[in-house]
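If you are new to this repository, start here. Below is one unmodified record pulled from the training split, so you can see the exact layout before writing a loader.
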Amino acid sequence: MALETWLIKVKRTISKHPNHKSNVGILSFEIASLMTKLLHLWNSLSDKAIIRLRNESIPFEGVTKLVSNNELFLLKLACAELVENIKLVAKSISRLSSRCQDAKLRCFDQCFDSFTDSGHDFHLWALSSNDMEAKNKKMATLIAITATLYKEMEELSTMENNLRKCNCFSTKDQQRLYCQSQEVKHLKQKSLWNTTFDNVVSILVRSVFTILARFKLVFGLGFFKSNSNFLKPPLDTLGASALALHYANLIITLEKMIRSPHLIGLDTRDELYSILPSTIRSSLRGRLKGILGFIADDPLLAVEWRSAMGKILSWLSPLAHNMIKWQNERSFEHWDFNLLPKTNVLLLETLFFANKEKAEAAITELLVGLNYIWRFEREMTARALFECSKIV
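And here is the target side for that same chain:
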């Protein structure tokens, strides 16, 4: 009973000054996550990112081989993804704006649609590049403090639960708990927690308007309006068959095996075969039919296969790794508003829009090559052991 009384006092200390109804409170963590998305979008539209898109992403060999070699089509894919992300952020801001006291902010929906369609910025929400950079620094600071608050609140909760379990606590425990509660209280004052909806939404609104203005400047209004259906993958792609992530993991597994074929045991080989889709199994059986009975002992052929697999992996592997990165950066299980995505990976740089038949042909080629290298390594090892046994 004494412990419960103490914990109640601690909680009262944290919320000694009750929040106004307009303060964001627990929604601060969702808002911090939203701010990271805005920062990421702004970075995706920077001069550096656009140059990378045009000079590296679109002409990348893996993209041109498996997705498309049509530059305009690929540019539309990139635009469609950016447009979708801007719209999703705007939708989240709209939900928050309904809780504002400022009538202009409550009309965000209509203002955003008007700015999208006609370019009219009635409230002058779009900022200059310099002002946007200053706003970004402010958001980054708020994100960092709110992230620290989240961590310290978790720590406080853990301490409280541990004390409840032991049902006894010393003066030292009281002091630690009190200090932790004071730290949480301090961080709430500095972070988004104690910020009003009006102040927060004002920042978000100005940011998304500036991002939309930047998009129009870079790509034009036509790209924003005409790309709504581009993100739906064609029927002949890995994305349409929901196999993009599975194939990405398969390619990464193959990449590791090709690097160290001598470490592949029979069990590992069987496990790999068990995860192959039926279409690849069938293709592989056709390629290996009639050659499995031959001894793999040609070092020149082994060198050729290693070279061929290296070339395939040079353009196929990045798409697989990008698929994993893209998925992880958007996974709810890995939600962390304190960490901006480390890359600006777009869907066109992944296996999502990859042609299924072409991707499977490349994977089959890797499997055939790996099969030969694996048998070659085993043959060379067996011969070496045989020679050693003769010496002994």
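Two things worth knowing about this chain: The chain has two domains: 2-225, 244-386. Confidence is low (pLDDT under 50) at residues 16-20.
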